[in-house]
Design a protein that fits this description.
The structure holds two protein chains of two kinds.
Chain A (H helix, E strand, L loop, with lengths): L13 E11 L5 E11 L3 E5 L6 H9 L8 E4 L2 E2 L4 H7 E4 L11 H11 L6 H10 L15 H13 L5 E5 L7 H16 L3 E5 L3 H7 L2 E6 L2 E7 H8 L1 E8 L16 E2 L5 E7 L7 H10 L4 E8 L2 H12 L1
Parallel strand pairs in A: 3-8, 3-9, 6-7, 7-8
Antiparallel strand pairs in A: 1-2, 1-4, 4-5, 9-10, 11-13, 11-14, 12-13
Chain B lengths: L2 H17 L1 H23 L10 H32 L2 H6 L4 H30 L7 H25 L3 H17 L12 H6 L4 H14 L6 H25 L6
Helix pairs in contact in B: 1-5, 2-3, 2-5, 3-5, 3-6, 3-7, 3-9, 5-6, 6-9, 6-10, 9-10
The chains are: A alpha/beta, B mainly alpha.
The complex binds adenosine-5'-triphosphate and magnesium ion (MG).
The site of adenosine-5'-triphosphate has 13 residues of chain A, from helix 1.
Chain lengths: ~325, ~250
Amino acid sequence: MNKAIHPVHAASDPVIEVRGLDKTYEGGFRALKGIDLTVRRGEIFALLGPNGAGKTTLISIICGIVNPGNGTVTVDGHDIVREWRKTRTIIGLVPQELKTDAFESVWNTVRFSRGLFGKAPDDAYLEQLLKDLSLWDKRDAKILMLSGGMKRRVMIAKALSHQPTVLFLDEPTAGVDVELRRDMWAMVRRLRESGVTIILTTHYIEEAEDMADRVGVINKGELIVVSEKNALMQKLGKKQLRLQLHEPIASLPEALNDYRLELNGKRDEIIYTYDTQSERTGITALLKDLSAAGIGFKDLSTRQDSLEQIFVDLVRESA
Amino acid sequence: MNLHGIRAIYKFEMARTGRTLMQSVLSPVISTTLYFVVFGAIGSGIRNIEGIGYTAFLIPGLVMLSLLMQSVSNASFGIYFPKFVGTIYEVHSAPLSYLEIVTGYVGAAATKAIIVGLIILATARVFVHYSIAHPGVMVLFLVMTTVGFSLFGFIIGIWADNFEKLQVVPLMIITPLTFLGGSFYSVHMLPPFWQKVTLFNPVVYLISGFRWSFYDIADVNVGISIGATLFFLALCLTGVWWIFRTGWRLKA
Ligand SMILES: Nc1ncnc2c1ncn2[C@@H]1O[C@H](COP(=O)(O)OP(=O)(O)OP(=O)(O)O)[C@@H](O)[C@H]1O
Ligand SMILES: [Mg+2]
C-alpha cells in the first residue's frame, strides 16, 4: 500500500481481521462459533467473557498455538495459515498461565525468546526491557526462585523480547498485586503510544473500563457485541433512580406495578431502573404517580451501570 | 529460514546438558568402564573373535549402545519436557517451521550423543588399544545413527503423555535390541536359526557397519548396513513430518 496516496486512518486501519472463525476441539466441543472481529491498528482492545467463553481459544488460534477450524484470520494483511512466518513475527503473546523454564535465568530466557522469534541478539534492548519491568536486578536469578508476580513480568519480557507490534495479554493481571497491576498498565499505555496494538482479556471489568478503546464481549463461543467502550456503556447502560423515602413502606402500591420498582432491604428506598436509550425515561410519570399514591421522598440520586453490569446483562441475555 | 530460532533451541538444549553434566557425561563413562572391567575379565577366557581381541571387539558395540540410548533419551526428553511444563506454547507461536524446530532439538540431541560416544572411545583407549580402519565411514555411522535415533526419540517424546511412557521405549525396546544386536558377540556365533531372526533387528546393521569401520569385519555387508540405516533415518523423518503436518499430540 502506498501510504503517500492513502493516508493511514488510525481508526479504520485494521491490523487483525477474523472472518467466520470456527473451532471444534477433538471430542466435538465447539469453542468458537463463526467469530467476526476486526482489531484496529494501535488500539487497546479488551475481550471480555465468562470462564470458558472461548477467549483463550481465539487468541491461541491467532498466535498459532491451536489449529484453526473454518474461517480466516489475517494479521497485518497476512493470512495466519499461509503466511504464518510473517504473522508470528509480528505477534507477541503473554499466555494466561505462567509457563516458564524454572531452571533458566531471567536473562537467558529472554535472550532465548528473542532468538526463537528470529531476531538477532540485541542486549541493549533487552537490558532496557528488563529495567522497564523492574527485572534487571533479577537477571541472573533462576526463574524458579522468583515470586509469582515476578514470573508474570518475565512472561511479559519474553513476549516483548522480539519487539512485536501486536501484543496479546491473556488475563495479564490475574493474581497480580495492585502495584504490579499499575506498572503493567503504565507499560501497556507506553506500548500503545509507541504504536503497538494490544488485545487483552480480563475478568476485571474496571480494567477494560480504564484501559480499553474498544470492548468485545464473547460468550459460549459467540461474539455478542463489539463496540467503542463509551458507546457500549451509553448504548446498553441502564440507569437507576433511587428515591429515599420519608418513612419505610410496607409494600409498593399495585398502581405502580408497571414501573417494576424495587424496594431496598430497609424498605425506605425505591429503586427505578430505566433505559437511557429510550425516548421516554418514565421519570416524570413515576414521580406524578408516586405523589398520587401518597408516597413522599426526601432525596433522590441516579447511578449508571458499570461495564460489569452491562456485561453480566449481556451474557444473561445471550444465555 | 529462522537461523536465530534454530540456534536458540540448540543452545537451550545444550545448556540443559551443561546443568546435568554428571548425568549426561559421567554416567556413560562409568558404565563403559564397568563393562570393560567386567567383560574384560570374562572376555579373557573368550577366544579372539575373527582375529580381534574381545575387549577391542566390544568397543564399537558399546559405543553404539550408548549412542542409541543417548540419542533417544536426549531427544525424547528434550521435546517432552516443554510439552509437560507447557513452555512449548512459545515454540508453536514462534516463526519456526517444523523442520527448523526438529533441526534444533534433534541437532542438539545428536550432538550430545556424539560427544558421549567420543568420550567413551577415549575412555576405552585407557583399557585397550584399537585402531579405526575407515574413519570416514565411522563418522558417517556416528552421524546417521545419532540423527536417526534422535528423530526416533523426538517421536517418542511427542507420543509420550507421561514419564513412564518416556522411559518404557528406551528400556523395553532399545536396550534389548542393542543387547541382541551383536554388541557383545558376533552374529556368526549364534545358531543358524537365530542368525536369520536377528536380521530383523535394525540395530544389527548399525553395529555391524560400525564395527566394520573399525576392524574391517562385519556380520552383514557394510553397504547393506548403510542402506538399512538410511532407511531407518528416512522412516523417522517421515514420522516427524507427519506429526508436524497433522499437529498430532502437539496442537489442539
Ligand atoms: N484443548 C482443549 N480440548 C478440548 N476443549 C478445550 C480445550 N481447550 C479449551 N477447551 C474448551 O473450550 C472452551 C473455551 O475455553 P477457553 O480456554 O478458550 O475459554 P476462556 O474464555 O479463555 O476461559 P477463561 O476465562 O476461564 O480463561 C471451554 O469450554 C474449554 O473447556
Ligand atoms: Mg482463558
